[in-house]
Specification:
The protein is an alpha+beta fold. It is flat. The protein has three helices and six strands. A hairpin with a 2-residue loop joins strand 3 and strand 4. The strands form two sheets. It has a four-stranded antiparallel beta sheet with strand order 2-5-1-6. It has a two-stranded antiparallel sheet with strand order 3-4. The protein has a single domain, classed as 2-Layer Sandwich (Alpha-Beta Plaits). The model has no long low-confidence stretch (mean pLDDT 92).
Length: 118
């Protein structure tokens, strides 16, 4: 089994009411992942306005509040799942509640230990 990260992007401007109304769908989806043994981890993130960006250039640390760039969508959370292959991970991604109005980016998780010995 391989691990895949699903990055969950949602459009800017969604209201708290919309998010609250959708909560039961998210809970059911997460339970389905658990029941299937596919769930590894997952978290929701606070909004872009809470972000702090850190850069170190020439030994100088710079901190910036907020998102790096204006965007129509923002990273709202993630899941890490175990799946047999990319097709199976994409099948899980298609069931994510925000797939119908946002974007789900799916990437294989790099097995650092295996890559180091290769």
């Amino acid at each position: 089994m391989a691990r895949y990260m699903m990055l969950l992007f949602v459009p800017e401007g969604r209201s708290r009411e919309e998010a609250a109304a959708e909560r039961p769908q998210w809970m059911a989806y997460t339970q389905e992942l658990h029941d299937a043994g596919a769930y590894v981890s997952g978290e929701a993130l606070q909004g872009n306005e809470t972000a702090t960006l850190l850069r170190v250039r020439d030994s100088e640390t710079t901190l910036t509040d907020g998102p790096f760039a204006e965007a129509k969508e923002y990273l709202a959370g993630f899941y890490v799942v175990e799946a047999a292959d990319l097709d199976a991970a994409l099948a899980w991604a298609a069931k994510v509640p925000n797939a119908s109005y946002g974007t789900v980016e799916v990437r294989p998780v790099l097995d650092v230990a295996a890559a180091a010995t290769a």
